[in-house]
Amino acid sequence: MADRAKGIPVATEGIPFILIGGILTLGVWAMGGVWSTCVLGSLTLFTAWFFRNPARTIPPGEDVIVSPGDGTVVAIESEYEDRYLKEQSVRISIFLNVFDVHINRMPIGGTVHDMVYQSGKFMMANQPEASSGNEQNALMLCRPDGVKVLCVQIAGLIARRIVSWVVPGEQVEKGERFGLIRFGSRMDVYVPHTSILRVQVGDKVHGGSSILAEVPCVEPS
User: Fold this and answer.
1) Known catalytic residue at 119
2) Which of 54, 61, 67, 175 could be cross-linked to 210 through a Cys-Cys bond (beta carbons 3.0 to 4.6 Å apart)?
């Protein structure tokens, strides 16, 4: 997979919103509406900032699992993941508010084993029920040594579109951009139950650069 968003200052999905805001701002300015120009101009600038696409330094090492998004760790739970992985896992839930970067990045390198979209509700993404009830897109990844990681993009109260740029079978690199969720949302990452965790609830993480956990690579026998 080629990192299709590399080197682009804002996500391409945000460009139409930015252009519309810019055109409306110029139109109101031409009509002499000072306050309206300030309000629309501020909203346009915020939209451009929301869709920002910063570069990140990706930690080296195949053992490392990095955060797929920016946000705050709101839950870490050991549980049996019965929908996709069907094995005991540790779920790390990351809440992204409207001020966080919403570009999503691969937590590990390897193969996109499968991808499943599920329609659903738009509850507050920081609520526990959002993991199973909200609209979401599950991305199942497999490292070359067989270690599996499940990354779930979850829509929130005002998030109305989940975007993914990959398809099953693609080879990906850790830290590569693979999609985004418009506005407030959540990322659930399911890592093996044997993982060495590097975060705790309340930690602020950054997509592609913050280490969530480590799983030592298994050498083929």
Assistant:
1) no
2) 67
